[in-house]
Amino acid sequence: MSWATTTPDKRRALAQLQLSDDITEQSRHTAGAACGGIVGLLERSRANGPIQDAPLSFLLVLMNAIADAAMDTMIREPDQASRAYCGEGRTLVRVPSPV
Q: What are the E-state strand segments in the chain?
């Protein structure tokens, strides 16, 4: 979130690249592999909940959309960003700790 709000031009460029047909599936896979810890986190978050039967790919798209919405709003409303979206004790999603 911090990167997106401090470099909004780069954030917009990344958003456009995600839609580009010029980015190969191999490139997307490589970028995704760099975020391997996120996959484990999302798997734990859905383990026993109402979305446990949803495909991981759906959850990844959903979480990306939530992050995009938060970042876009934070960029548009910078004076409210830290208080409304990243304030102490606030979270969009609660993830159970690993057992």
A: none
Distances (CA, A) of 42 to 12, 35, 46, 89: 25, 11, 6, 20
> Tell me: the pLDDT tens digits for 40-83?
888 888 888 888 888 888 888 888 888 888 888 888 887 776 66
Are the CB atoms for 46 and 39 separated by under 8 Å?
Answer: no
pTM equals: 0.61
- Round to whole Å and give the CA distance between 71 and 18: 15
- Nearest of 95, 11, 99 to residue 46 by alpha carbon: 95
Separation CA 89–CA 24 (nearest Å): 39
| CA distances from residue 41 to 30, 35, 75, 85 in whole angstroms, order as listed | 19, 10, 26, 20
Q: Residue 6 corresponds to which tokens in the numbers above? A: 């401090």
